[in-house]
Fold this sequence. Notes:
Elements: H1 4-17, E1 21-22, H2 23-30, H3 34-46, E2 51-54, E3 60-63, H4 76-89, H5 97-110, H6 114-126, E4 127-130, H7 145-157, E5 159-166, E6 172-185, E7 188-195, E8 200-205, E9 209-218, H8 229-239, E10 244-250, H9 254-261, E11 266-271, E12 274-281, H10 285-294, E13 298-302, H11 304-322
Parallel strand pairs: 4-6
Antiparallel strand pairs: 1-3, 2-3, 5-6, 5-9, 6-7, 7-8, 10-12, 10-13, 11-12
Helix pairs in contact: 1-3, 4-5, 4-6, 6-7, 9-10
Amino acid sequence: MANTSTRTLRLLSLLQTHRYWPGEELADRLGVSIRTLRRDIDRLRDLGYPVDAQRGVDGGYQLAAGAVLPPLVIDDEEAVALVVGLQAAAEVAVEGIAEASVRVLAKVVQVMPTRLRRRAEALRAMTVPADWGDPAGTAATGIDPEALTVVALACRDSEQLRFSYTTADGRHTERNVEPHRLVCLGRRWYLVAYDRVRHDWRSFRLDRLAAPRGGGARFRPRELPGADAAEFVRAGLIGAPRPYQVDVVVDAPAAAVRARIGRWATVEEADPAHCRVRMTTDSLDWPTMALGAIGADFRVLDPPELVEQLREWSARFGRAAQVPPRG
């Protein structure tokens, strides 16, 4: 049986992962008796964690919301995620959020073990936030926290980095680069680096990057051809070819449409009751959702692929509407 301190932390971790634990099941998971479990529960309460108990045959325990926030138990990946989230929150323009996020971020990093603090500090120092209010070209992407911190440490330490990379057309390549900075743009992460094989600066999407590893070899940092890393990434994306030029006539006043999607499209008045909407995008999913959210009829002038996608989505939604609701 684990010592008391270790067992208490294990108990807290279990209570945080489930809303309710039957007493016998919780005792079995800890490898202790019901009597020992009660003592451990009392110990958590003494530390400030409010644990509710339900008596009877089906009795058990659950962690309740308390008047104060006691210490949290998080693993390594959760600690990295917390730092990334707080750093992102520190960049928002919501009153009170940024300042509070900076204070919390400082407290979290201060109490981290040295091993985790090194990873967190590398992420904070090597990430350049870039505000770009255009979700049309962005999508939620899953980034491996371990890969993210390996890249951040290589940027901070000026250490050559090797990784596998999948290009936009699906080709798999091996890259050897001198990493410069990480850029968080919209909902994607990018690495700005000097490619040692192609002898030029490149930006790499981290969701297309796999198995990053430092080679141990250091390099003298080069001068980036641009104002900063964020500007370098933005310029590359603007210059990249976009396959779809969307052109639509909407049966609604321009002002009303502009209020809904004006940040991400060009809206021109055709007459008081109609407007012309144009978008440039690398995916038709966003225009389809945006046009549907306007709440008005519309006619697609271009491209034909958007008309075909609308037919497919219409058929799918129609089938869903025919399914009777449960209960």
